[in-house]
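Morning run. Coffee first, then this:
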Amino acid sequence: MYQPDKQSYPEYYLPYVQLALGTDLIKKLETNLHKLSGFFEAIPEELHEFAYEPGKWTPKDIILHLIDTERIFSYRALKIIRGEGEGLKSFDQDVFVLNAQANEVRLAELIEMYV
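And here it is:
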């Protein structure tokens, strides 16, 4: 079984790495993808743009955040594969959500983008 070198990731990722060891990650990702999309599909339409207080994220904001994060991590993986992985920059998720205008998109379209 593959055991990543502890020097290859920050210490705060250790619990996540331990959860992944010995797991069929592809199968787990597929299962979680369907569970998560089912979760969002079950949200009543009147709550798609609901935030429990000003400045908090709506369900649409959350799923678009997941989509953006997948895109960013895919880009980072590409940079690493192509040998340009030094100095990978972070991103400000709050700025992304603020400027994404997720509430202008139907939830069904966001779910389709996600899966």
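The radius of gyration is 17 Å. Good start to the day.
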